[in-house]
């Protein structure tokens, strides 16, 4: 694998000098320059993009991150924040010419304030750890990415992450009340949902590390629902399952989650975790209802009726938490499970309007047949967020290219149907080239102006999100000024 950032590694005296400066502001052992240890951080969940970071730092406080960022500014080197590295768009891909700021030593739940239904946590706290800290009191943190056992809240904020239950409860942006951030200049500031004026908190959430580094997050806590009902419905085909989804939502029910898997995804889950979904299913639908017990009982009867009317040949309702977990097991393992039926795969993430789902799925089938590439479909059916898993054999010449072509065409389909190139995995380095398919040059320039308002030197996670990175005030495509590390023998890279 090659360095996919296009940057020239910072080596020699420049790197040594920066590393010495960083060591002076960080605790012992918090600066990594050993080439073998640096390799640990060379990619995130998008493993075909790799770059060995110039330096890795493991700060413990916001003050230390601010000091690191100020040193980066002094030397004009880029910095990239990293949480758990589970991102699927290469957002945490390091720079060989820069500093990777890893939040793994910032894992404290600082405050739980139940009367105000909020918790304050450090950025390296995992998503699930927040719920675990408040569950004994009957509360939870709602956004639930499938990676929640390991991904960090700092990464969730940067990606505006979602999960199966975001249909009813909203994405990360709906659950963050305040952030403490280190700006790209090295100042520590707070962005609060109650701040008057522009919604800078809203702008920061989902900015993929390009507007600064989150050092503290205040999240909203929800009361655990009185009742949860989980149903599994098996259909002969995706079309029947799709009909059920439309009828459930069209009938005024908003389930907490409504997830669908097609036959190939079921086959993979079966091979990996023996989830025992009904044999012969062309699609399964998982519908979860929560709320007051009387309401969920009524809704669950209605969902059963609609599923049967839409062609379901088997229905199961979880009788207890163990059965509920068994129903979810196959869905939660779906991404990793395809590794059981294919040597390599691409996890795609796109959105289409719910009503366009049947047409888009049929087009994906056609693409799959035309290119001889299998596609397993797993999706948050309620909000049209597709996760096609494009399977290929990386030992077969040309297969990776064909898979990449299918994957790209799927994004085209999403855009053509008025959807989006990403539902929750972000743009990162992987999808930057697709941004012009959704946005005009004017749109992108306007976004760039926002970026420049936060980060006038383009040092915070450069090379991500935007297809043609440029510095503030530059004419598109024309670079200005020399990089301070020209002395290290390389040209300006960002
Ligand atoms: C098996 C699997 C299942 C997944 N399921 C889901 C899912 O259901 N829903 C979903 O939305 N995503 C999902 N993801 C994607 C991923 O887990 C999320 O994007 C997650 O939020 C990334 O968190 P992280 O801590 O791993 O961040 P990283 O991968 O380390 O970083 C992600 C981005 O956040 C930035 N970042 C990290 N920390 C900070 C910080 N403190 N300040 C500023 N920027 C920061 C990085 O620079 C990068 O741009 C899944 C991934 C895997 C591997």
Automatic annotation (TrEMBL):
Q: Could you confirm whether the keyword Oxidoreductase appears in this record?
A: yes
Q: Which domain of life is it from?
A: Bacteria
Indicate the segments forming the FAD-binding PCMH-type domain, all copies. Answer: 49-224
**What cofactor does this chain's UniProt record say it requires?**
FAD
Whether Oxidoreductase counts among this entry's keywords is: yes
- Name the keywords, alphabetized: FAD, Flavoprotein, Oxidoreductase
- Which GO terms label this protein's molecular function in UniProt? FAD binding; oxidoreductase activity
Protein known as: FAD-binding protein
Where does this protein come from, organism-wise? Planomonospora parontospora
What high-level taxonomic lineage is stated for the organism?
Answer: Bacteria, Bacillati, Actinomycetota, Actinomycetes, Streptosporangiales
- State the gene name recorded for this protein: glcD
